[in-house]
Amino acid sequence: MNLRATVVVAILALLLGLASAALAMEKAFLWDGSHWAQASTDGKIGYIFGIGNLSDFESAASRGKGACLTRAFADELKGKTVAQIVAEVDKFYKDNPDKMKTSVIEVVLRQCTSVCAPEMKAGGKK
Question: What are the helix (H) ranges across 1-126?
């Protein structure tokens, strides 16, 4: 390899390393209503498929003795289509614009499963 090609490869490797470091510094976050509202239908479907696939993997890896969240997705959501789950999450955020900071996973668990009880309405009894 000539000197010019070596310099180009070195610069590309340096830029790749800097980009990786910058991405690693970003703080991880849970999707909430503001992220959900900005996502396309395909993005929402992909999100639901992603958490479903993760729960399937965790359940298989733990030989069916996965955590509560895994069982909720694997057992309770198997009777619903992804489109139904997306519609329920959409409805929650539409009906509760003051709760846009609620994570999508919490909305799915509260609205689509019996693992977490739905939130009580203001003035309701526990």
Answer: 3-25, 33-38, 41-61, 68-71, 82-95, 104-112
Residue 23 lies in a domain: no
- Angle, nearest 10°, between helix axes 41-61 and 104-112? 80
Closest CA to 92 of 81, 72, 106, 82: 106
Q: Which residue has the tokens 């939130």?
A: 119
The count of structural domains within the chain is 1
Interval 65-79: pLDDT, tens: 656 667 667 777 778
Let me know if residue 66 belongs to a domain: yes
For 7, other C-beta atoms within 10 Å of its C-beta total: 10
Residue range of the domain that includes 45? 33-112
Instruction: Please tell me the predicted confidence (pLDDT) of residue 23.
Output: 47
In DSSP terms, which residues pair with 32 in a beta bridge?
103
Summarize pLDDT for 5-55 with one digit per residue, the tens. 554 455 555 455 545 544 455 556 788 999 899 999 999 988 888 887 777
Q: Is residue 11 one of the residues assigned to a domain?
A: no
Classify residue 3 by its DSSP letter. Answer: H
